[in-house]
Amino acid sequence: MPFEKGTLIYVNYTAKVKDTGEAIESTVADEAKKLNIYDSERTYAPRLVSVGEEWVLKGLDEEIGKMDTGERKTVELAPERGWGNRDPTLLRMIPIRKFGERADDLRVGDQVEVDNRLGVVRFIGSGRTQVDFNHRLAGKTLVYDVEIVSKVDGDQDKIRALIKRRFPGEVGEKMEFANEGGDVKIEVPEGAFMVEGLQVIKRGVANDVVHFIPTATAVRFEEVYAKREAPKPAVTPAAAGEAAPAAAESSAAEAQSLPPR
Predict the structure, then answer these.
(1) What confidence score (pLDDT) does residue 165 get?
(2) How far is residue 260's CA from residue 256's CA, in Å, rounded to a whole number?
(3) How far apart are the first and last CA of the chain?
(4) In the chain, how many H helices and how many E strands?
């Protein structure tokens, strides 16, 4: 049975380029390792998708919407349903001097940034470089092996899933929250204080919660600073040995000073 638009589901997938077999991405750690695209800095887990809202490529989103929980399927996406066809107007000739100190080190295939746009060097010669601003997967047919892992039901599960979407890994898993009559309170632990772009992430979580939880009227974040106990000084065996005679001498002195009964 097809999913309705806005349904939250968890999806596993592995993507490759059809013509070359090049592995692009996988949400499954074992698959990523097998395909030599494993990244130790990344969290591997099923991806949260809101059906019909293009949280993934439009073509993949359309195919996922036709599937059911537990179903596996191989999906082929033509360029127009993936990263689009190549646009020749996005090939630009740029004077090599524009790259400043890096100019002498440029090589064909290097990724460069020009006017806040990322591109790939395709040609170098006669004092100029040809930079391709097409997405590297533009014009390519993609193949996705997809599995619908589960559907997210219930407000509590939805809030947890939306938090984990923005705070991946252990931080998002352990964040405490409560929904009190539409007033959603989320505790941000110290471990998340140094997360880059924290304010933007919090805004994203708030927007998601209000969007997917119809009864939510407000989202509040509480930053929790836990009190730390001062560490007690360790007692070494030598110090303990010295303390025992001192204690005995102190007790003897006290005994001698006591008045007779």
Answers:
(1) 95
(2) 9
(3) 95
(4) 6, 12
1-85+139-152: CATH topology: Chitinase A; domain 3 (3.10.50)
Q: Return the H-helix or E-strand segment holding 120.
A: strand 117-125
State the pTM of this model.
Answer: 0.78
Spatial separation of the C-alpha atoms in residues 242 and 246, rounded to whole Å: 7
3-state secondary structure 49-89: EECCCCCCCHHHHHHHCCCCCCCEEEEEECHHHCCCCCCHH
- Distance (Å, rounded) from C-alpha 175 to C-alpha 187? 6
What is the CATH number that goes with domain 154-254?
3.30.70.2210
User: What average pLDDT does this structure show over 206-219?
Assistant: 96
Angle at 31 between CA 28 and CA 37, to 5 degrees: 100
8 A C-beta contact, residue 250 and residue 242: no
Instruction: Identify the pLDDT of residue 244.
Output: 55
CATH class, range 88-132: mainly beta
Q: CB count, 10 Å around CB of 11?
A: 21
